[in-house]
Please model this.
Amino acid sequence: MSRYDAIVIGARCAGASTGMLLARQGHRVLVLDRSSFPSDVISTHFLWPHGTSYLNRWGLLDQVLAVTPSHTEVTFVNDGIPLTGSVPDELLRAYFRDWHGDDSGVVRTYASVRRHVLDQMLVEAASKAGAEVRTNFTVRELITEGDQVVGVRGRDSDGQLVEERARIVIGADGRNSFVARTLGLPKFDERPRCTFAYWSYYSGFDLGPAQLHRRGRLACAVAPTNHDQNMVLVWGPSEWSREFRRDVPGNFQRALDFVSPELGEVVRTRGVRAERVYGTLDQSAFLRPLAGPGWVLVGDAESAKDQCTAIGMTHAFRGAELVADALGRWFSGDVSLEAAMASYEGRRRSQNAAAYYDYVCTLAEMRPYRHDELQLFVALRGNQQEIDRFVATHADVAPVSEFFQASNLLLLNDAAKETSAGYPVFEDYPATARMYQQNLFA
Amino acid sequence: MSLPELDQRDDDELIGTILAAAGRQDLEAMAAAAAEVSEMTRNWATHIPWDEFDSLDETALNEVVADLTQMWEPVDLQVDADEEYALDKNAYDFYRPAGRNLMTRTEEFHGWVEARRRTETWQYSRTLEAAPNSIAQITNDIGRRTRGINFNSQDYLSFNTHPAIREAATKAMRDYGPHSAGSPMVLGNTRISDELEASLGELVRAEQVTLFPTGWAAGFGAMAGLVRQEDHVLIDRLAHSCLQQGARATTRNVVRYEHLNVEAVRRHLVDIRRRDSRNGILVVTDGLFSVDADWPDLVTLQRVCREHDATLLVDVAHDLGSMGPGGTGVLGLQEVLGDIDIVMGAFSKTFCSNGGFVASASPALKQYLKMFGGSHFFSNALSPVQTAVVLEASKIIRSAEGDLLRSRLRTAVTALREELTGHGLTCMGEPSPIVPLLIGNEKLARIANRLLFDRGVLAFMVEFPVTPTGSSRFRLQVQANHEPEEARAAARIIADAIADARTYLSSAFGSTER
Model:
């Protein structure tokens, strides 16, 4: 018999959480990561309210919020049309009842938390729950017997070759997953178009809740995060990345000034940058098979999407609860592994999941907002209930299908309190649309 | 931990340096640059052996170069731009056209439709080459012909080929000619119009019947006739378009309640009555819902409405004639014949003709709707041929032959549902002439639809705005003339087409709802 029930490869949002939840159920868990902690990793590190709710359900939120600012309202400004809203309590509760069967621990706040802060807390929580966590551990091989994955071989922090076996190996090792690559898993539903994203950290100003601005094919966001700093992020279509890269700091500021002159001004005149400018283009979306003999994937390893809705960590937490629940039922002998994995797959590959995947992938193409989309934003102005539902839909709390339903869109129109008259973008829209197609950095 | 220094080189530059060094096989320079790469990126790209660049063999070096190149300059996959455009968009993307010229601003939508047509993913505007039966011969919108098992026609009892129906049409043509030549309020009706009203009244046990030229006109007209600006409409989210638009046209006080949720209706009624004791409330639902194939609990719904002085309108377009004891539809199944405030229906599904009706027990309501419903007064009456066909249909529906036809229909429905379910597919709702086969993702549905066209099955794919985004499906409409084996064969073809479409799109998404 194996020493472990489960070996989790990867000790960040998906892995440490899965390890912690399984250990809390009393299972013998080994969690491995090649990094040491605390350490950073490329991330928008934004937790939507269901993300923070997961932390709260696990008893970790207070610790996170003790060092991390959090807010409830978020502002979207699309081509000068502002919408401020928050995710409603009842939609959050419905979400948790639907996904996990109970709505305990729901909070409405979101937070931007640095990964060197959060991941360390998750790793500690996994250890405290009884999981054995080994960092600086590089997995080199999966041990197989026939088709079945039965363990791992790797090098521990002292450079020793080590072999460990378990009933299941959980790949929680990100979009470039070692487990997936070693097993030669195919990718499905690939969407090559994505955004390029560049960001850094600034002190010197406090703008309150997070803001997301969008103009033409570019976007920027500012969110208050740890150490009294702000994350400032700009993104645009991958087709423009080559030109952007020619002068990263200069184009970073140019993008800010174009998308939101006000925010550009704040960053230019008051912002003090604390770190280098980071960037990534490695964001194309895909799915992988979720599970097979002796292995299962969770988090970005099984399905990665563009950063543009900042949903990755929240989805990783959701995946951790789902997979820990499914595996727990198998460990306890209630269901077969196949049945447990089928229920996990059913949820992760559902119609609603597909609709949200399409929503993110389409958004990530960063086409300019169309006239009718902008008019929808105008129609939403003053309709707080529907703004909130839009925010909840954008964050994957409420299903895309309920907001984007014909009779709902017609009603939104009819209930509109404002007209397009007050927004200059509508003045000569065709000319503006042509201008938006031109690469700002060329 | 020590935060990275502000003035360190950007990862972009460092990766560029690494790739350039790799080109020169300069492993030392690669390792030196790798040491400067940010912790963020090193921890993200865990598949790159950042600390081992100085000892790479040739294979490993090539792998590193390939992986880094893919991360830094991913090659966009080759895509068919037309097909991508056709598959990515939804009709709602074009709901608000831009510009002050009402004519030219429709062109963008037209461009999208053309892309859908070129890629043969446009499911609309197919035409028939002959009378639609269980097999039909059709031409698609770009002129390509096919022949297939037909689930694309709404003729649940196969009346279109029934000799008595055709004879009734011929006789009416001889007696009255093709034209009704006027509004039913003026001189558009004939003696058989009165006979038809009486026959329908007996069928739904609500004798005060008003005829309308289409089913759409009946639904819209009923609401336009009854509801005023300060009144309230509570309408099932999935109720038919004519009722949704009727609601929008008559009042701003519209609540769309969760599909079938009678408890939600009760809560809304309590809420409205708390605020408003003066004005009317119309609660609107379908009987058999045509996209989900389910129906509400009408017993409770009607009771709840009465408790709050609300009026209930039920649209029985799809179930009347085709289901229930004696063809009485969902009303008969739930034993509420004669109990429902207002019954509205259409002839186009089972009664073999255009047209619709509104029925109630109230002569006053009937007169009022005729005057104020708009679409009754200000439309030409049903033609004599249409009237005669519907009258004959209503007679057959209530006869022993009607029972036989419905039983054949049920057999075909069961065969179709069983075979589809046996292939692991999801049929929504209850057994009824409508079999909604859930697909979900629009792209998958559009490609499967394209494949089906050449494989001998005619099915209508429904997507937004008929269904919510991401919830597309095939709506299979079964007929009494479908042989069970025909239905099973079609189900197998459909299952194959969906599997092939999934392979074509390389999609891993399934069709379960949540």
